[in-house]
Design a protein that fits this description.
DHBP synthase; six-stranded mixed beta sheet; five-stranded mixed beta sheet; about 30% helix; about 20% strand
């Protein structure tokens, strides 16, 4: 997109969106993603970078924007668990329990990925991180897209996450095609990341959801084996 930051930043009220304006903003965002572009959008933690995970050039551009080294995985967001079909091999009973309890919300689960998911997204691990976000703009975007999108934090690698569209614009904005400005996000810790391919599931990173709550929902007690 051309036209500087004014044309690149599109506001959308997450609480009381104007139907016409929101529809046009989402249409523009999806058009960009489908043409291989990269956008930023708000989530329940920070702003994320959205691209088509099945477009190799778009994923490559995502890494360039973030200054991210190859081998570091990129998580995906979906609007419905049905979107995981074809990108994850299996969903365990424990994973289903966590999905019902914590999705939509700041819990990223790692699953064994299918061959449809490139090694660039998995970091060569064969596992893909997925979550359903609870932010209304993120959900509207995903529903309009009808497919998974990337959601790595909208910042340069190693730098703090951006909790406002202005922060996104200051750091990586000039390299993006569109920023969906849904106002300030909560910030704070990122999503909790749990490896759901292991039995019991194992903590990778503790974020907004305490790992004790994860274990409790599975009927487990915190132990060293469970935590690391």
């Amino acid at each position: 997109m051309q036209g500087g930051s004014k044309g690149r930043v599109v506001k959308i009220d997450p609480v009381h969106p104007d139907p016409g304006l929101a529809r046009e903003a989402l249409r523009k965002a999806i058009e960009i993603v489908r043409s291989g572009g990269v956008i930023a959008f708000p989530t329940e933690t920070f702003y994320g970078l959205g691209a088509d995970p099945f477009n190799a050039k778009a994923v490559e551009r995502l890494f360039e924007i973030k200054g991210r080294e190859p081998g570091q995985p990129i998580l995906l967001v979906i609007d419905d668990i049905k979107r995981a079909e074809g990108i994850v091999k299996t969903i365990s009973v424990e994973a289903w329990c966590l999905i019902r309890k914590f999705w939509p919300g700041p819990l990223t689960l790692l699953f064994e990925s299918t061959s449809r998911v490139t090694s660039a997204l998995t970091g060569g691990t064969g596992k893909i991180g997925i979550r359903i976000p609870s932010h209304p703009v993120a959900l509207q975007l995903l529903q309009a897209a009808g497919q998974p999108l990337t959601a790595t934090s909208a910042n340069r690698s190693g730098q703090p996450g951006a909790a406002a569209a202005e922060a996104v614009e200051e750091t990586v904005g000039p390299k993006l095609d569109l920023i969906l400005d849904g106002g300030a996000t909560p910030g704070g810790p990122g999503s909790t990341i749990v490896d759901a391919t292991l039995h019991p599931p194992r903590l990778i990173r503790e974020g907004k959801i305490p790992f004790g709550d994860i274990l409790s929902s599975l009927g487990l007690s915190p132990t060293e084996d469970h935590e690391w």
